[in-house]
Amino acid sequence: MLETVVTLMILLGGLISFEGMEIMMQRRERQMMTRIKIARQRYERAHLEIIHD
After folding, report:
1. For the chain, what is the largest distance between any 2 Cα atoms, rounded to a whole number of angstroms?
2. Average pLDDT of adjacent 10-residue blocks, the chain of 53 residues
3. DSSP, res 53
4. Segments forming the whole domain that contains residue 44
């Protein structure tokens, strides 16, 4: 019985840490996408300024 409880606790701990890692990865992915969008907007704005000058 004790072994079963310990095994379940270890499995649960692994799942919780895996979920935490996934949340962190999703947050970083969102940050990266935001940076890419901002960089693209700046590039397009600069490109339009060059074309219109």
Report:
1. 78
2. 88 84 94 98 93 80
3. -
4. 16-53
